[in-house]
């Protein structure tokens, strides 16, 4: 009798294991892949324009490090408040896809705007601000759609898949731009038109293939500015927001890293966009396996490891290593940094936030990080101008070490969940 009961249970156990494996393979879901396709196309479009932007502004328009740092910070931080607008609006109307679609469309139209502004730095700044406004509006609703399209235990993999596809676009963008320039005798207008067409295709994919998702909020759950502010009453949300701000302040930005590499290794202007390609290649190779590892061993250690890699990048910029080993190691570690922090940090936020305010909470965390990045870029540019690049980078490394230490104190062995009661109390 005992043996027969074991025999009956064994197939059941095997079927359960099969079902578990199938859930693991399919947990990410088609919606995440559709959103990844949208991001892939949008990133091709964006990177076609932005891959040469640092070298164009610094060498073409002769901007100082402080001026470039200000524009670079504005590029990410000035539209940070729109992340809050996009997140709150998506929660309020319960249509994250529609809000994300408006943001993607704004960025697509901005590519056409660049055709009209010529070489005016001020006009270029305004058009870039419009493009970033679209990014600010769409980011939180898009990430909320990902959290609503995958189970909590698979969020690391879901964001890993999305960020991998996103980084494929970032990898291909500069290559497509170089190909268009080669085919059109260096015609910038052709790059901009191609960029717009690819971005418009991304908007079409969003409209046709991405399914809207809604949280399962209780009838008593109210979305209002007052309730959004009460998010900060929940200790896990506060800790994660403070950690995100500290970590954002430690990042000096891609442009500065690539400019420092270019100065040290005398990389040609024509080859400058390939630095971004190298980072994107490392990112796309690492994003999914690191996301899956975060689901298994914990997301906080992965994030801390990513920022530790950033410290090593800063130190290598003025270390003893030279030549292609330096370029390869810096770009690999920089790609690892992004793979270990970008989607994983948002995956860490998912379980912390109440469902009916999830998009608003994600936007709040992203806004805090973007605003501190704005401050970091401006201050790094000022430090470079006053003390030189070596001292500035060493200061950045020291700040990053302090940020990693503080984040470990804030997040390790702390509660990573909150409840609607904590928000509505």
UniProtKB/TrEMBL annotation:
GO terms for cellular component: plasma membrane. One of its GO terms (molecular function) is transmembrane transporter activity. It is a multi-pass membrane protein. Its main location: membrane. The keyword Membrane applies. Gene3D superfamilies: MFS general substrate transporter like domains (1.20.1250.20). Residues 9-20 have a biased composition (Basic and acidic residues). InterPro entries: MFS, MFS_dom, MFS_trans_sf. The chain crosses the membrane at residues 32-59, 65-85, 167-184, 190-210, 240-261, 267-288, 300-318, 324-349, 361-384, 390-412. It is found in: Cell membrane. Pfam families: MFS_1 (PF07690). Keywords: Membrane, Transmembrane, Transmembrane helix. This is MFS transporter. Residues 22-415 form the Major facilitator superfamily (MFS) profile domain. Residues 1-20 are annotated as: Disordered.
